[in-house]
DNA sequence: TTTTGTGTATTATGACCATAATACACCTAA
DNA sequence: TTAGGTGTATTATGGTCATAATACACAAAA
């Protein structure tokens, strides 16, 4: 994980949440693995054209959620184990599917119709 | 549309957006049709345990988006025609499917895997 | 040793959302 | 005619998010 250039920010979700989600996605895709070094707060802020304080807020969250470790002023690294990986997988995949199904049922879409729509739009 | 009791508010989206989305959903499901009278701002606020100003903000939005009309102090009514209905249908259905597919591809889910997951969770 | 970059923290400002408390003109039903 | 409900508007307060501008202690590199 040397760069955050692939992260395109939207204006719906808080930026610090989007940063944490991006890192979780990189872990899920195994593009970020145990021990990987992350860029400094200031460097990420520059890459995203965002305030360093916002990036710091993202790091605070990621440390609390357990998949990023920081020691002193040596920078931060990715930390993953089996449990954490499963949690991230469940969050990114399970929540996506569950929320989609809830919304689809909410507007009376049938299972058949949903599969049709996805097939059509894929 | 006499009641907003079925609307369960979440804390992720702005309340006034959720109110407008609820009305759009009622229109899509044809439970709200042309000419239907809506409860007063104050009554909706009471039903949702929300501030009347927040409800007023929702009405302002719904009028701007065209599916609610207000005249004087006679209350507000649903306004739908073919064009508006199609817009709402596209917004609620199309956007849901498109955003889901984008997110699914984002985490490298295959079409096959997605259908499996939906089948499993439905 | 001095400079540079690091993580961390604080204070102030501003936008957006929601609440609270009013206020006012209008219509309608008692 | 009056009392009550309507839509609408305004002002103030507070929380969250993001920015801006600093500040400080620490470690590594020049």
From TrEMBL, chains A, B:
The keyword Transcription regulation applies. Residues 13-81 form the HTH gntR-type domain. InterPro entries: Tscrpt_reg_HTH_GntR, WH-like_DNA-bd_sf, WH_DNA-bd_sf. Keywords: DNA-binding, Transcription, Transcription regulation. Pfam families: GntR. PANTHER family: GNTR-FAMILY TRANSCRIPTIONAL REGULATOR, HTH-TYPE TRANSCRIPTIONAL REPRESSOR YTRA. This is GntR family transcriptional regulator. It comes from Evansella alkalicola.
């Amino acid at each position: 994980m040397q760069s955050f250039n692939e992260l395109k920010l939207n204006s719906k979700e808080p930026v610090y949440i989007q940063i944490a989600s991006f890192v979780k996605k990189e872990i899920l895709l195994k593009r970020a693995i145990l021990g990987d070094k992350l860029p400094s707060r200031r460097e990420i802020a520059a890459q995203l054209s965002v305030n360093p304080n916002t990036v710091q807020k993202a790091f605070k969250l990621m440390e609390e959620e357990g998949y990023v470790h920081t020691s002193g002023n040596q920078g931060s690294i990715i930390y993953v184990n089996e449990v954490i990986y499963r949690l991230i997988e469940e969050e990114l995949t399970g929540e996506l599917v569950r929320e989609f199904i809830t919304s689809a049922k909410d507007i009376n879409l049938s299972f058949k119709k949903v599969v049709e729509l996805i097939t059509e739009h894929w």
